[in-house]
């Protein structure tokens, strides 16, 4: 059963030309419980009706009285127009939480292949009670250009939690840049040129890494990209049951 949440927008921060971070405070009921990876359904006014749009929760589930969403504003989008015009202290209604895109409890190495705002549920997983000491994890985040990156410092600091015996790896894959010259030298190790699948192939070309049954893949982003990444993994003989995905 989905709950209905009355909220107010307490903070709206523009992260890039078309991506915003929204923070909503819960009014009634005053708290939200969710599993990292889940989404909420926003009720968007259209004429005299309300239509639904899903948004993955990007904040930690240890924070109960508010939540954050990372949303790309698409031209002429119904919810996009509503959100871009929503002002601090305005009310908004959500239902949820919903969705099965959740970390599985096992000690398999987790590989996240996400594009654009598909980073949102992964941020929630990382910021919640992520079991950093239990498994290795690798995050490949696909964006077009360097200017499209946001919350980089936050991500980087999560990756410094690596321990000696656990491997954490962050690769931001820039598909439309020609070189990485604009990136400050200390940060360059986090970046690669090319689409996610190309960067992933480069990283995993070592035969010893191909113990696929020890890996679990989490895909998130626009529908076409998730479908194509899923086909790419299947073509590499990754068992379907090791692929978990959320299509936007
Ligand atoms: C489970 C789930 C979780 C989601 N989580 C997020 C999230 O965390 N962050 C987020 O930004 N979105 C997320 N989405 C997508 C979101 O629900 C909306 O589809 C998106 O915000 C567009 O809605 P809209 O009403 O503004 O556009 P619509 O009015 O639905 O569409 C307007 C036009 O824009 C096109 N369009 C739709 N999306 C895009 C796009 N991304 N780029 C270019 N054109 C597009 C449509 O095809 C249409 O032509 C999620 C979707 C699902 C199913």
From TrEMBL:
In its UniProt record, a GO molecular function of this protein is: oxidoreductase activity
The segment(s) forming the FAD-binding FR-type domain are 2-104
The domain of life is: Bacteria
Q: Which InterPro entries would you find in this protein's record?
A: Cbr1-like_FAD-bd_dom (IPR008333), FAD-bd_FR_type (IPR017927), Flavoprot_Pyr_Nucl_cyt_Rdtase (IPR001709), FNR_nucleotide-bd (IPR039261), MRET (IPR050415), OxRdtase_FAD/NAD-bd (IPR001433), Riboflavin_synthase-like_b-brl (IPR017938)
The record ties this protein, via Pfam families, to: FAD_binding_6 (PF00970), NAD_binding_1 (PF00175)
Enumerate the Gene3D superfamilies for this protein.
Nucleotide-binding domain of ferredoxin-NADP reductase (FNR) module, Translation factors
What name appears for this protein in its UniProt entry? FAD-binding FR-type domain-containing protein
Provide the species name. Answer: Candidatus Roizmanbacteria bacterium CG_4_9_14_0_2_um_filter_35_15
């Amino acid at each position: 059963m989905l709950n209905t949440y009355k909220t107010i927008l307490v903070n709206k921060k523009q992260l890039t030309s078309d991506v915003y971070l929204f923070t909503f405070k819960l009014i009634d009921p005053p708290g939200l419980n969710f599993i990292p990876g889940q989404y909420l359904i926003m009720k968007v006014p259209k004429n005299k009706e309300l239509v639904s749009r899903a948004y993955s929760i990007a904040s930690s589930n240890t924070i109960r009285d508010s939540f954050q969403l990372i949303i790309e504003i698409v031209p002429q989008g119904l919810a996009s127009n509503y959100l871009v015009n929503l002002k601090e202290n305005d009310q908004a209604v959500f239902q949820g939480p919903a969705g099965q895109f959740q970390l599985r409890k096992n000690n398999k190495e987790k590989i996240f292949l996400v594009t654009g705002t598909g980073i949102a549920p992964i941020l929630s997983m990382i910021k919640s009670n992520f079991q950093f000491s239990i498994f290795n994890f690798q995050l490949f985040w696909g964006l077009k250009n360097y200017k499209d990156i946001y919350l980089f410092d936050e991500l980087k600091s999560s990756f410094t939690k690596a321990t000696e015996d656990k491997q954490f790896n962050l690769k931001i894959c820039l598909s439309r840049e020609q070189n990485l010259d604009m990136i400050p030298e200390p940060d360059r190790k986090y970046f690669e040129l090319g689409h996610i699948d190309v960067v992933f192939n480069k990283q995993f070309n070592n035969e010893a890494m191909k113990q696929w049954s020890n890996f679990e893949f989490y895909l998130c982003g626009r529908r076409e990209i998730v479908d194509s990444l899923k086909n790419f993994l299947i073509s590499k003989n990754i068992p379907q049951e090791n692929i978990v995905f959320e299509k936007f």
